[in-house]
Specification:
By secondary structure, this protein is mainly beta. It has no helices and eleven strands. About 30% of the residues are buried.
Length: about 120
């Protein structure tokens, strides 16, 4: 059973930084793609970033390019989302997701497993 547990959310001022973590367990993830999505109040869940565990290919939403960085730690089975230059519009619940395969997908219906989410609030 795949389990994804996010942590690292919180309250930060605009311009600040946060690092989210997603601890993955339940199987070997070398043939998986890991993604981050977010959902703001009253809005649909949207893609943020994704990384292919093997090889490290990445993909980002245009809204976060140059500010967010996705990475993974093989030894810890953990995926990170480093968020810099945060803006109030980044406020949302952030979810970690996983899908088997090598395609670095950018839509939520392509991911099979989800974490419970972690709240990120950016104050102006």
């Amino acid at each position: 059973q795949v389990q994804l547990v996010e942590s690292g959310g919180g309250l930060v001022q605009a311009g600040g930084s946060l690092r989210l973590s997603c601890a993955a367990s339940g199987r070997t993830f070398s043939n998986y793609v890991m993604g981050w999505f977010r959902q703001a109040p009253g809005k649909e869940r949207e893609f943020v970033a994704a990384i292919r565990w093997s090889g490290g290919s990445t993909r980002y939403a245009d809204s976060v390019k140059g500010r967010f960085t996705i990475s993974r730690d093989d030894a810890k089975n953990t995926v990170y989302l480093q968020m810099n230059s945060l803006k109030p519009e980044d406020t949302a619940v952030y979810y970690c997701a996983a899908r088997p395969g090598v395609y670095v997908a950018g839509t939520q219906n392509e991911y099979d497993y989800w974490g419970q989410g972690t709240q990120v609030t950016v104050s102006s």
